[in-house]
Amino acid sequence: MKPPRLRHTEDLRSLGFLMATLALLTATWSGWMRSLWLIVPLAWMGFLCCIIAHNHMHHPTFRGRFWNSCFQLLLMFGIGQPPTGIITAHNERHHGHPDGEGDFVRTSLVGFRWNAVNLIAFPFVSIATMFREKPGDLKRWRRTRPRLFRQALLERIVFWSVLIPALVVDWKSTLLYLGLPWISAQLMLIGVNLLQHQDCDMGSEYNHSRNVTGRLANWFLLNNGFHTAHHLRPSLHWSRLPGFHEKQVRPKINPALDHPSFTGLLIERLRRPAIRHAA
C-alpha cells in the first residue's frame, strides 16, 4: 500500500486543524482538561472541521481512495456526523438548486421582520426541512453508487460504535463536551448560508453570493469566504479560490457583495431594512 499523499500541500493546515480539534475533544471528554469555557473553542474548532469536511467532499484531500476513506472517519469525530451525509444536502441540493425549492438551506425558509431573528431561526428551520424532505441516501446509493454506499455504511457503523460506548461510560461528558460543540458547529455552518445568499440575485452569474475577502479570516476559514468562486467552480481546491476570485469574479461582481471582514458582513445583514442585492 502506498503511503498517504496530499493532493495539495496547503491541506497540511486542514490536517493541523483537525488533529488539534480531536486532541481537545479527547482531552475534555476524558477529564484531563475540563472547563465549561472550553465548549466555545470546541464549537469553533468543530466549525472549522465542518469547513474541512465540506472542502474534502468537493475535492478529496488525499490521492488514494483508501486514505480518503480513513480521513473521513477521522473527520466524522470532528464534525459529529458521517461526512457522506453532506453529499445530498450540499453537493446535490445546494449546488444543484441554489436557493431554489430543492435546496434545504434556501433563504426563503425564514421571513421574519428582524433579520437577527432570521439568523437565529434559520439553522433550526433548515434542519427541520432537511429531515422532512431529504430522501433515503443509503437505499438510493446501494442501487446507484455502491462504493459510496459502502463508505456511508462504514462511517455510520464506526460512528455509533464509538458514540454509544462513550454515552454509556459518561453520558454527561459526552453530551456536554462532544454533543454540544458538534451541534453548535453544525448550526453555525448552516447559518452562514443565510449571510451568503439572502437578498442576492440568484439568477445572476456572479451576484448570487456574498464574499468575505479578508486574508486573516480566510486563513482560518480555509478561504470559505470566497463563496461566489466556490459556486462557479465547486471542485476547485480551496487554496485556488482567492486567485479565481481576483481574476474571474471581482471584475464582474457587484462590489457591494465583497466584504473585507466577516464582522462587516454580519453588521450589514443585521441592518433594517436589509440591503437587497437582487435585480
Describe this protein with a few key phrases:
279 residues, mainly alpha, two-stranded parallel sheet, globular
Structure description:
With 279 residues, this protein is mainly alpha-helical. It has 12 helices and 2 strands; from the N terminus they run ααααααααβαααβα. The protein has helices at 11-30, 39-58, 65-79, 86-96, 115-133, 137-144, 146-169, 171-197, 215-220, 227-232, 241-249, 262-269, and strands at residues 211-212, 258-259. The protein has a two-stranded parallel ribbon. The relative contact order is 0.13. The model has no long low-confidence stretch (mean pLDDT 93).
Give the distance, in angstroms, between the N- and C-terminal Cα atoms: 54 Å
Oligomer: single chain
Strand proportion, as a percent range, falls in: under 5%
Average pLDDT confidence is: 93
How many beta-strand segments? 2
Strand order of the largest sheet: 1-2
Task: Compute the number of helices.
Answer: 12
List low-pLDDT spans: none
The proportion of residues forming helix, as a percent range, comes to 55-70%
Shape: globular
User: What is the structural class?
Assistant: mainly alpha
Main beta sheet strand tally, sense and closure: 2 strands, parallel
| Order of helical and strand elements | HHHHHHHHEHHHEH
Using only C-alpha atoms, the radius of gyration works out to: 19 Å
